[in-house]
Design a protein that fits this description.
Keywords: Iron, Iron-sulfur, Metal-binding. With 765 residues, this protein is an alpha/beta fold. It is built from 31 helices and 33 strands. Strands 6-5-18-17-16-7 form a 6-stranded mixed β-sheet, sandwiched between helices. A hairpin with a 2-residue loop joins strand 26 and strand 27. The longest helix has 19 residues. Bound molecules: ligand MGD (2 copies) and molybdenum atom (MO). One ligand MGD binds next to helix 11, helix 20, strand 25 and strand 26.
Length: 765
């Protein structure tokens, strides 16, 4: 047996500063600067010719789906494709001309690379060849695909039970890959399928399932044209879903109003200069937000309760404010909800949420006189201890107004990764679904396990405790994305084997189990061929529409395999051909995978044909106002509780957010243009009065410290920036601040880490 060398890895990487410049925050999003920045990124990574070729094919019907966010494409996109700065950056990052090859790994050990920043690591380029890190080594070395599969199969066979393996999924994988992966995992015998959703919209899924009977949103893109009010809560579309700004623009042009609820006044929500229109280039563009409610971090329930309470009062006085016919026909729990808001005083709620009283009045007036309301939200609501309640309170408001199941109204959880919703639909799920198990049994002839699996936070705990020993990741960057970086690092390092199926190098490849494998895969933009014939796969967007995506670029290396083929390779090596499923054959034939998806799941009839062109919508009971699966066959009002933070003197609530130049843990650049911060990520935004109280000057370096369960966690070296943020609140970027998030503090019911409300103190350096 080989010995295991203790590797000297820097888990967190460097904390050095990069040379900040600060300017005034921007007052609009997009416009010409966005085009300029997008092209700069694209040309730098891909060169001019390749850039122009590929950018014209993104999000077109016969093109490939943008690997960025999950916002849907309009049915009739412009000739240019719908323009998006951050989509261009996402594609530049994937289609870069830089390569991480054998020489790279021979030159740099994992110890060396661990001292690089995430930015440097990502910029080193695309992975080109399967690589093995042996227990006694600090250098990855090349390995053949077959030998890599054999190592995985051997480690999986060596486990005492299948539950000692953990299979993570990030949300970029296609429906075909995710389906096959889930199928293999179940055949292998576990439901340990943590996925990025657990850290993302899990709270939305739980809340929406319990209240409306489907874990997805109900609106379609065209509803934005018809909406009278769009509320954007805890979401920064200018950066994270830039194409959503066109939808908000249309809403405004048709007379709709936008209410944004956010501790920050995000530039993208102030004004949009659509670069595809003359007025977006030459004139001032479109003002988006009509009312900005600057809520304190995690006081959305207080704010929504206040609005509901005031509306209820008006309804009693004047009538016709709530849609009683809708409530009587479709919902239950109305009286309890009214009794609940009765308990709170308006003064108390107003103080908790910290919003200006006049703005509350204006909002109530708007909500009172309109009935077509869409509520959009993202991580600002989901990543709190009471994330599920945040969303249930939004549903309460929509139910009261009858704003569901009709044009221009409904729920709109704005998803993260471009196929995270699809992955869940086709079976990536740690919970047991008896219906799914029966369908798999019927279709494939084996019985999937019926024991609940581990989600992200519990998988980390299991690996930390030595109860799980093999970790396999289909995409993502588990180490940096998950909470409590040092604890998670130990969890991964305790494993016998960690495997990453990836497009680009990241920190999870450096903080590994005793043995580690990197399996390089094709990206969205690349041609995927079998016997010279191009293949396509399918994805589902944020609004439940399934459509095809077909890459067009030459792959980054001839040694790459598609995700389904890699999964098939692992399964084939594990079963050595002795299984009821012909893994090799199935994994190479996407048409056949789609046929199986169609047999296992409802709503995918004729998938092979219907996914062509602009695609089709999956069934959605809320659109039909069918609540038959819920108690009494009614949509459910919920009683939501106010958060308890018990903030002591000198403590702050920190939200960990995205800069304009990153996609989760992939760092595109060091600027956060809309917030006026350039060339630095180690920053913390703070109210000027709080700075005074803490005796801090602009750009003073500080450490951030969290203390949970008597454990101190520290993130070092951040520069203080005075900013328009509520007092008592701070903002900083993830993943640098993930070290502060305790692994065992997460949302009730959804187990989503509390990344948006970490209690911290500040230590001046
Ligand atoms: N370019 C780019 N696009 C992306 C991503 C990316 O990193 N880069 N990530 C993708 C993924 S996986 C996801 S999940 C989405 C994330 O999209 P977002 O959820 O927009 O991303 P965050 O930066 O986490 O921003 C959360 C917003 O919520 C606000 N907020 C924080 N706490 C609270 C609160 O308590 N209440 C309220 N009302 N607001 C709050 C913050 O000020 C911020 O504006 O974007 C997806 N698209
Ligand atoms: N503190 C804090 N933590 C957070 C969040 C936060 O707001 N605050 N947000 C959370 C959220 S919303 C999410 S979704 C998670 C994200 O968690 P992950 O999905 O795990 O992280 P990413 O950074 O998106 O993963 C990037 C890596 O995916 C790989 N990759 C990219 N494209 C492909 C592909 O097509 N196929 C394969 N196989 N690999 C690919 C590349 O190797 C790249 O390095 O992070 C969460 N963590
Ligand atoms: Mo996400």
């Amino acid at each position: 047996m080989s010995t295991t060398k203790k590797r000297n890895i820097s888990v967190l990487g460097p904390t050095t500063l990069t040379g900040i410049t600060i300017k005034e925050p921007a007052t609009y999003a997009a416009g010409l600067p966005a085009v300029k920045v997008a092209l700069q990124h694209a040309f730098k990574e891909m060169g001019v010719v390749k850039s122009m070729h590929i950018l014209s094919k993104m999000n077109q019907k016969e093109g490939f789906d943008c690997p960025g966010c999950a916002w849907p494409d309009p049915d009739s996109p412009s000739k240019l494709g719908e323009y998006c700065e951050n989509g261009a950056k996402a594609i530049a990052e994937e289609a870069t001309n830089q390569r991480v090859d054998n020489e790279f790994f021979a030159k740099y050990s994992v110890e060396d690379l661990s001292h690089w920043s995430d930015y440097q690591i990502g910029k080193s380029g695309r992975l080109t060849q399967p690589m093995l890190l042996k227990p006694d080594s600090i250098h990855y070395q090349p390995i053949s695909w077959q030998d890599a599969y054999t190592i995985i199969a051997k480690e999986l066979h060596a486990l005492d039970t299948p539950d000692e393996a953990v299979f993570y999924t990030s949300g970029r994988s296609s429906n075909e890959a995710a389906f096959l992966y889930g199928l293999f995992i179940r055949a292998f015998g576990t439901n340990n399928m943590p996925d990025c959703s657990n850290m993302c919209h899990e709270s939305s899924g739980v809340a929406l399932n319990e209240t409306l009977g489907i874990g997805k949103g109900s609106v379609k893109l065209e509803d934005f044209d018809k909406a009278e009010i769009v509320m954007v809560i805890g979401q920064n579309p200018g950066t994270n879903h830039p194409r959503m700004l066109s939808a908000l623009q249309k809403c405004k042009e048709n007379g709709g109003k936008v209410i944004s609820i956010n501790p920050l006044e995000e530039a993208g929500l102030i004004r949009f200069k659509n670069p595809q229109e003359i007025k977006g280039v030459l004139a001032s563009g479109t003002a988006l937000t009509d009312i900005h409610l600057q809520v304190k971090i995690n006081q959305d329930v207080a704010l929504l309760k206040l609005l509901i309470k005031k509306l209820a009062k008006l309804d009693q006085e004047k009538g016709n404010i709530f849609d009683h016919q809708f409530i009587n026909t479709h919902a239950q729990g109305y009286e309890n909800l009214l009794a609940d808001v009765e308990q709170y005083s308006e003064t108390e709620l107003l103080a908790s949420c910290g919003v200006d009283q006049n703005l509350i009045h204006q909002t109530v007036e708007l909500l009172a006189s309109n009935n077509k309301i869409i509520i959009c939200w993202a991580m600002g609501l989901t990543q709190h201890k009471n994330g599920v309640d945040n969303i249930k309170e939004c549903v309460n408001l929509l139910l009261l107004k009858g704003s569901l199941g009709k044009p221009g109204a409904g729920t709109c959880p704005v998803r993260g990764h471009s196929n995270v919703q699809g992955d869940r639909t086709v079976g990536i799920m740690h919970h047991v679904s008896p219906a799914l198990n029966t369908a798999i049994q019927k279709t494939f002839g084996f019985t999937p396990p019926d024991k609940e699996g581990l989600d992200t936070v519990h998988a980390i705990e299991a690996m930390h405790q030595g109860k799980a020993k093999v970790f396999i990741a289909l995409g993502g960057n588990f180490l940096s994305a998950a909470s409590d970086t040092e604890y998670t690092a130990q969890a991964l390092q305790n494993c016998d084997l960690t495997v990453s199926i990836s497009t680009k190098l990241n920190r999870t490849h450096l903080v590994t189990g005793k043995t580690a494998l990197i399996l390089p895969t094709l990206g969205r933009s690349e041609l995927d061929t079998k016997n010279g014939k191009p293949r396509y796969f399918t994805v589902e967007n944020s609004m439940g529409k399934v459509h095809q995506s077909k890459g067009l670029l030459q792959p980054a290396s001839e040694n790459l395999k598609s995700e389904p083929e890699i999964i098939g390779g692992i399964a084939d090596a594990y079963y050595k051909g002795d299984h009821i499923v012909d893994w090799k054959n199935l994994s190479e034939d996407y048409q056949q995978i789609r046929e199986k998806i169609q047999q296992v799941f409802n709503g995918f009839e004729d998938l092979n044909n219907r996914s062509k062109g602009s695609g089709f919508y999956l069934p959605n009971n809320v659109r039909e106002l069918d609540f038959s699966k819920l108690p009494n066959q009614k949509a459910q009002f919920s009683i939501c509780h106010l958060p308890e933070h018990n903030i002591k003197e000198n403590e702050f609530i920190l939200m960990t957010i995205r800069s304009h130049d990153q996609f989760n843990t992939t760092i595109y650049g060091l600027d956060d243009r809309y917030r006026g911060i350039y060339n630095e990520r180690r920053i913390v935004l703070m109210h000027k009065d709080d700075m005074k109280k803490q005796n801090l000057q602009k750009l003073d370096p500080v450490n951030l410290i969290s203390r949970y369960d008597n454990k101190e966690r520290k993130a070092n070296n951040f520069l203080v920036i005075p900013y328009n943020i509520p007092q008592g609140n701070l903002a900083s970027y993830f993943p640098e601040t993930n070290v502060l998030v305790p692994y065992n503090h997460f949302a009730d019911k959804s187990n989503t880490p509390i990344s948006k409300s970490i209690v911290v103190t500040i230590e001046k350096i």
